[in-house]
Design goal:
single chain, 342 residues, mainly alpha, Four Helix Bundle (Hemerythrin (Met), subunit A), Arc Repressor Mutant, subunit A, transcription regulation
Length: 342
């Protein structure tokens, strides 16, 4: 693979006019360990060096439109190319290979950011930029010797950073970061569907009892999850018939990705079984019936079984989750960034 030369692309912020028209090349160092501070240039949006009248036109255009058009120039990598670049990154700390890996997967970040847009009332570029940070981390952490496709591996990092950004800014989007709100974020729609299949009306009162949160929290989260702010059928610009959904590459999961997913699920299954061995009898029972069950018992049901209050059951449950987070951080260091999803 040829090294990038004086014609290499520059990483700039599309919201910064000076960055857009600045044609000076800058070398970028790649943090091999991924533990230090991330340089701003690692995750801002890419743009080509612009000449003549094109400078003025690009600066005046919508930043999102410019960005989508720009990243579409970078071709996707083959599996062999991913492995070759991954080896250079891990073994030689090669910043050029890292640059190629990042730019070739920027469309994946946009696709995932669009999936989360319904939860974010602000600029979509906020989510894209956070997702790009996750992508950079994925490039740093990717092990080319494991049978896992990079796009599949990177999607976990991208989603984690976007979701963490949304959760950290809950005062703006009103999702929240309490235990109950996180539970609703991940399980509300699934619980509603389960009740419908069982022949029940999934109203706030029943959902509140089943999930152990207040009816008000149910109503607020339900409204938030149902409120899409960006339609994938919306044209990229007013004079274009091209829709955002057409721009995003949405491949059906390949056999390789299915194998990779199965490998990850197997690893998690083993770790969960190991974690169970660290629990006391009552904790294990609550873990199986409340946390790790497809049809979890309510706080009331478990409380009656052990002759304790609902609040006490909630305390035990929270303690188990805290233990589980620490266990996974110790046993699976690469997944420490995902503790907000547990």
């Amino acid at each position: 693979m040829k090294k990038r030369d004086k014609h290499k692309q520059q990483i700039v912020d599309v919201n910064d006019e000076e960055s857009l028209i600045d044609g000076d090349d800058q070398s970028r160092n790649f943090d091999e360990e991924g533990s230090g501070m991330i340089d701003k240039s690692d995750f801002l949006l890419p743009a080509r060096k612009i000449h003549g009248n094109a400078q003025k036109a690009l600066v005046k255009s919508d930043p999102l439109q410019s960005y989508l058009a720009e990243i579409n120039r970078y071709r996707l990598l083959t599996r062999d190319e991913e492995i070759t670049l991954g080896k250079k990154i891990q073994e030689e700390n090669d910043s050029d290979s890292a640059y190629v890996m990042v730019t070739s997967n920027l469309r994946l970040v946009v696709k995932i950011a669009l999936e989360f847009q319904r939860l974010w009332m602000q600029n979509l570029l906020d989510l894209i930029q956070e997702g790009n940070i996750g992508l950079v981390q994925a490039v740093k952490k990717f092990d080319p010797y494991k049978n896992v496709k990079f796009s599949y591996y990177a999607s976990f990092w991208i989603k984690a950073y976007i979701l963490k950004f949304i959760m950290d800014n809950w005062r703006l989007v009103k999702i929240g970061t309490t235990q109950g709100q996180r539970k609703l974020f991940f399980r509300l729609k699934k619980e509603k569907q389960r009740l419908i299949e069982e022949g029940f009306d999934p109203g706030p009162k029943l959902l509140s009892e089943r999930m152990g949160v207040s009816e008000q929290e149910i109503v607020e989260m339900d409204q938030r999850l149902d409120g899409w702010d960006l339609s994938l059928d919306e044209p990229i610009r007013d004079d274009s018939s091209t829709e955002r959904i057409e721009f995003i590459n949405s491949d059906i999961e390949s056999t390789e990705e299915k194998v990779a997913r199965k490998e990850i699920e197997d690893i998690l299954h083993v770790r969960v079984n190991e974690f169970k061995k660290t629990l006391k009898a009552r904790e294990l029972d609550i873990f199986n019936k409340r946390i790790f069950s497809d049809e979890p018992l309510t706080l009331q049901e478990i409380g009656e079984e052990y002759n304790i209050s609902r609040e006490r059951v909630r305390q035990v449950e929270n303690n188990i989750i805290k233990k589980m987070k620490e266990f996974f951080k110790n046993e699976m260091p690469d997944f420490a960034e995902y503790d907000h999803t547990l």
